[in-house]
Design brief:
With 232 residues, the chain is of the alpha+beta class. Helix content is 33%, strand content 18%. The protein is built from 6 helices and 7 strands. It starts with a helix and ends with a strand.
C-alpha cells in the first residue's frame, strides 16, 4: 500500500483474521512503499521497484543521501523468486470517479503508464516598463501558449483515459519588472496504453520545438530536456 488508508485497512484485515482465529494457507506480510509518486526524488514507484528488482545506482545514491539527512538507515528489503503467492493492494481512490458514481469500492482494471519531460523556453530578459510589446521575446508567454495546448494534444492523440498535466513552472530571472528570459515547464502524460501515452508525449515535445507553436514571436527558441521519467 502507498498511503494511510491502505495501511490502516490492511492492519484491520490482519487484526480481524487474528480475532477470528482463522488459519491461512500462507503467512501474511504488510508492506508500505515510499515515494511511489516520485514527488521527492527519482522516478515514481520507487519503493515497490526497490522491493521487486532493486534501483539503479544513481537512484540509490540519491536515496541514501536523502535518508541520511532524515536520520534514517537500514538495509533494503528485496523480494526473492517464488517468495509471494499473491499480492493485494488496497488503495484510496484518487480520481473521484467512484465517488461521483456513488460506489463504495471498485476493482482495478489497469495501471496507467506515465511519461514526462521538461520544456525550456528561451527568450530575452529586458526591462518590463520600457520595452514595447512588439519588441519583446517573452519566454513565459511562449510557455503559457504551450501549456494551453496540452489539453488539445491529450484529446487528439490520447485515449479516453489519457490526462496531461503541467505541474511545475519556473521563470528566470524572476523579477516583477523584468521580461522573462527563460521559462521551464514540466509536462506529465498518463493513461492506459503505453503507445497512446508515448504518442501524446512525442507530439507535445514536437510542438514545443516548433517555432510556430508556443514560441511564435514570443521567444528565441525552446529546448526539450530529455524524458524525466516514465513507467509502463
Amino acid at each position: 500500500m502507498t498511503e494511510p488508508w491502505g495501511s490502516w485497512g490492511l492492519l484491520q484485515c490482519v487484526r480481524t483474521i487474528r480475532e477470528r482465529g482463522l488459519t491461512l494457507r500462507h503467512p501474511i506480510e504488510i508492506a508500505a512503499f515510499a515515494n511511489e509518486e516520485g514527488s521527492r526524488i527519482g522516478h515514481g514507484t520507487q519503493g515497490s521497484r526497490s522491493f521487486v528488482h532493486g534501483l539503479a545506482e544513481g537512484e540509490v545514491t540519491s536515496l541514501v543521501e536523502t535518508l541520511r539527512v532524515a536520520g534514517i538507515s537500514g538495509e533494503s528489503r528485496r523480494l526473492k523468486d517464488g517468495e509471494l503467492a499473491c499480492y493485494l493492494e488496497l488503495h484510496i481512490e484518487q480520481g473521484g470517479v467512484l465517488d461521483a458514481a456513488g460506489e463504495d469500492i471498485g476493482v482495478v482494471t489497469g495501471i496507467v503508464g506515465i511519461r514526462s519531460f521538461i520544456a525550456r523556453f528561451h527568450g530575452l530578459a529586458n526591462h518590463a516598463g520600457t520595452t514595447p510589446m512588439d519588441m519583446r521575446k517573452d519566454a513565459l508567454l511562449a510557455a503559457a501558449r504551450f501549456i494551453l495546448d496540452v489539453p488539445e494534444f491529450v484529446a487528439a492523440f490520447g485515449s479516453g483515459s489519457s490526462v496531461g498535466t503541467c505541474g511545475r513552472i519556473s521563470v528566470l530571472p524572476g523579477g516583477q519588472n523584468v521580461i522573462p528570459g527563460e521559462a521551464e515547464v514540466s509536462v506529465e502524460v498518463a493513461g492506459f496504453g503505453q503507445r497512446r501515452v508515448s504518442q501524446v508525449d512525442i507530439k507535445q515535445a514536437g510542438s514545443a520545438r516548433m517555432p510556430g507553436s508556443g514560441a511564435r514571436s514570443s521567444g528565441d527558441g525552446v529546448a526539450v530536456v530529455g524524458d524525466t521519467g516514465g513507467s509502463p
